[in-house]
Amino acid sequence: GLHDIPSIISLSTTLATKKADVSHLSPRDLLRRDYKEYSFTLHWHPGKPTVKAGLSTVPLQLKSWGSKGKLFSESQTYMQARELHVLGVLTTFKKAKKSGKEKMKHRREMAWIVLSDTGLAERLWLGLEEDQEIRVEKHKKFKTGKVPGHANVRVYKQGNAGATRKATAPLLKRILESPS
Q1: How far apart are the first and last CA of the chain?
Q2: Can you give the residue ranges of the DHHA2 domain (predicted)?
Q3: Taking the domains of the chain in order of start, what are their residue ranges?
Q4: What was the pLDDT predicted at 91?
Q5: Local structure of 86: helix, strand or coil
Q6: In whole angstroms, what is the distance from residue 113 CA to residue 148 CA?
Q7: Maximum CA extent, the chain
Q8: pLDDT tens sequence across 131-166
Q9: Is 4 strand, coil or helix?
Q10: 88: helix, strand or coil
Q11: C-alpha to C-alpha distance for 78 and 9, rounded to whole angstroms
Q12: Which residue, 4, 13, 92, 148, shows the most beta carbons closer than 10 Å to its own?
């Protein structure tokens, strides 16, 4: 069939490589590339406000595009343009195992930026850190840089690399919308 023709195989390989290459994208474009937006009502908050949250999936390790304060500055600009209160940046990438002998290991990180002072950040950190499915731990090596007082930023390594946005989005909803 078609899948056995050498020129088709070669073109398919080239297309897959080009499609996966995000090296030409700016941090803003990386945030926009695979993005979903949600609205949540904070039933636990006295005024029961509605907040906007976004989740961006980025196929690169944070340190390759977000270090030296870039993660926060780019995210803040993006959040202000979209009127977001919360942005979750979910990274997914492959990294060589420590031994170096075995094949690449799939990894995930999460960066969360909260531009709100309603107690939202503390609630989010607690909910994420208690969750048994995604199993986050604070990312000790990634430095967020200087962050203004009104903003909250936290970066995690994700213990369960199999948990995608399909696991994170419902978790975010539970954390933000549960009444207690």
Answers
A1: 58
A2: 12-176
A3: 23-177
A4: 97
A5: strand
A6: 12
A7: 64
A8: 999 999 999 888 776 666 667 899 999 999 999 999
A9: helix
A10: strand
A11: 39
A12: 92
CA distances from 151 to 85, 105, 116, 121 (A): 10, 33, 7, 9
What residue type is assigned to position 83 of the chain? E
CA distance 162 to 69: 28
- Residue at 95: amino acid letter: K
Q: What is the pLDDT of residue 148?
A: 65
Which two three-digit tokens encode residue 12? 């398919």
Q: Is 32 exposed, middle or buried (0-12, 13-18, 19+ CB in 10 A)?
A: middle
Q: Tokens 């202000």, residue? A: 80
Tokens for 113?
A: 């930026």
72-124 pLDDT, tens digit per residue, is 999 999 999 999 999 999 999 988 777 666 778 899 999 999 998 778 999 99
- Return d(Cα 157, Cα 151) in angstroms, integer: 20
pTM: 0.87
Instruction: Indicate if the alpha-carbon torsion angle 58, 92, 103, 63 is positive or negative.
Output: positive
The residue type found at 87 is L
Structure token pair of residue 126? 């607690």
In single-letter form, the type of residue at position 119 comes to: G
Per-residue pLDDT tens over the stretch 35-59: 999 999 999 999 999 999 999 999 9
